[in-house]
Predict the 3D structure of the following.
Amino acid sequence: MIKSYFPYLLLLLLSFEGLSQTRTQTTLDYQNRIHPEISSDFMVVSQNTHATEAGYEILIKGGNAVDASVAVGFALAVTLPRAGNLGGGGFVLIYDKEKDDVTSIDYRSAAPKSATSDLFIQDDSVVRFGHLVNAVPGSVAGLLKAHQDHGTMPLADLLMPAIRLARDGFEVTHDLNYVLEWGKESMLSNEASNNKFYSANKDPIEIKSTFKQPNLAKSLFMISKKGADVFYRGEIAKWISEESLANGGLITLEDMASYEAKYREPIETSYRGYKIISMAPAASGGLVLLQTLNILENFDLKDSGHNSAKTIHILSEAMQRAYADRAEYHGDPDFYDVPIKQILSKQYSKDLSDQISGMRTPDGQIYEGDLKKYDESPDTTHFSIIDSKGNAVSNTYTLGSSFGSGVTIKKGGFLMNNQMRNFSHFYGRDDMQYGTSEANKLEPGKRMISTQTPTLVFDPKGDLFMILGSPGGGRIPNIITQVITNVIDHEMSFTEAVIAPRINQRLEGNLQLETGFSPDTISLLIERGHKVESSNTMGSVQAIFLDQGNIFGVADTRRPGALAKGN
């Protein structure tokens, strides 16, 4: 009887084998529990529905990926106040399909010229909120520089969706109401923020009410007509400086006028035949990502199995070593010679991988590497865009914490960042374990490091394969690492790769796990010496994947309101 069924069993097994080989390429089968947005023309993926729609509107009108990115970036400043912004900063990768070239723009916020570390330290903690922690904002300069050099449509057309949203208003979601509730710590102490986002009873703006922002609409309209000049040298610059100096802040008109978005050479590595391109410092997240992947390349993660105890252990140990080097060597390249080539040396990563045993390395026993012998040839939101010609944008920007410093520029209607707290303010102190890096010490005009990690992945043929990034603070490079390995090593479908449970491990401390890991796996991790703790969801990856002539958009469901939309 068994013999008579053998041919059919063999055929069935072969069918499943073929299916497993193709499903990760097309994702068009019913083995997957969730499915992406699919297009053959263009795609916009962002953390907010209105912002995605703004980018989609521009692409429909014939704009390119950079045009759409400007529309999305300014729309997020209206509809996602926790992270979207005019008063923050970020980084963008731009892929030109025709030239087969990737460029990057650093528009990270910068320290005012009068800033010194002692201003920010109170009782061995760093000031988190208020006017003092406002750095000179870079978002407007960065988005408009991208448009000036790579865009095709008039600036006024690109800002119109954001202006409409601010002027006419949009419906308050449950999510916006919720995040405003736990954002009270920073917001209620600022009169303009209090009046804008809360009632007289200190309650957040009501769910389903129409939220109009006339002052922000005015600022956006001025930028649409006068460009970056009005923000950095004109009327808006005066509003920022006057309010800053009147309330204990440091930003002067000179600080605003001297700010510029800068082109940086992107950094890259290879991972199992794929080319991974990310942002160079001061975006330290890109360097952490590439170094982690270099270490992981020395292990057979496919054989270890997705999210097995062994794989999680290897990921954790690799992450720790990359973060050790971040703590010591990452900084603004205009002020510190970041040893990028040495950190990305394949031999260096091999040597680091040899340190990883079957047991967790105890806290205090992982140090930055001695790089001399490897002298050979970093709350946030992200959006990813590809246009009909194959041009792409991967953009991450931030206010720092959710709602930044909690300070709203009253006349301008926009929130300011709290990124001054991200410097190593304890540099030169022997009594502190962290925050002592020379590379990231505070200096006037300097940009603080950031774990923002906009990323592009090219397949072994050289074709664009992934466009991705995420919010998530210090977890961002680890989040991106896992999405990449999920696809390349574990051959997961694109949606499953993004949605799968995540881990996070910094230089020291507990191994953090999202929900979704089995008790058996956790027990095995504890046996390996890991101190495991449950975590809230990590990040919100907004990703685009390209394969077999199709464009797959995946909006991470970890944060409500994200949307992928293609045509």
